[in-house]
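Ticket #4471: structure output looks truncated?

Reporter: J.K.
Steps to reproduce: submitted the chain below (329 residues) through the standard prediction queue, then opened the result file.
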Amino acid sequence: MTTPRRLSMTVAVGLTAVLGLSACSSSGGKQESQSAASGEQAKAPTMTVAFITHAAAGDTFWDLVRKGAEDAAKNDGVKLEYTSDPDGANQANLVKQAVDKKVDGIAVTLAKPDAMSANVEAATKAGIPVVALNAGSDAWKQMGVLSYFGQDEKIAGEEAGKKLAAEKATKALCVIQEQGHVGLEARCDGVKAGFPATEKLYVNGTDMGDVQSKVTSKLQQDTSLSHVIMLGAPFTMTAVKSIQESGSSAKLVSFDMNKDVVGAIKGGQVVWAVDQQPYLQGYLAVDSLWLNKTNGNEIGGGQPVLTGPAFVDSSNVAKVEQFANNGKR
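Returned output as attached by the reporter:
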């Protein structure tokens, strides 16, 4: 990680912390305690932000992203319009709809940048500020996007691979739940760069039965596997069952976390997780658009604002658990 990236992260969080002291509630435009005490009339939101992701329904990772976005909207007095669609073309159409509605800002994920680029560029040409988060760390600049909040998936993968090497792993399986997702591919490519004895396995992430059966089958076929790497918290918890079902001695590691993964690390079923801090991604995306509208700020200085990778294992899981229980990690 380079120094400018660290600095951009510090600036982003620092601005959020300082300006958040006087931030407004989305339901009232004033801090909730003031409104409740005084009974004052709530003021209208300062702006409308369309928050458009590639999330599938029911994914606990995206619940954390959304929680961060909603908390920022509440603090800043922003009307938040959250939509999602895992299909690239459909997600691009949601961007077009937001442009047609003339929203004040757009926060968007770029898991499938080829499908998204035309409509995102149309938004920026229409004068609507756009920020990206979570996916598209290599593509956002070309689309005229102001800032990117997330982790560099290749760097995160490389660090995970180095950690495997340091732990004397012998052979790793990197399981990709959505073929064509550039971020997931970058994670596994990064792992392989840091730990060459890594192979990929593709599963259907919309069918947990398929995930479990294919991972189980692979573990039964290849007893030389020392580690299984899952690229999302719900899939990690399914892989716990696969390891038990197959009788494999392979160790399980996860990209991304939720409350269940935190519990599995604490209980020893998962060795460690790569945390990209999804709550922070959602919060910073909305907060940066508010800062841009109200104060002309642009965060990051042309560099991605990195929210990961951070590693959670038995040494620090107890500290993280308290925040996971609050629904923010």
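Triage note (M.O.): checked the attachment and the full token line is present. The chain has two domains: 3-151+277-298, 153-275.
Status: closed, working as intended.
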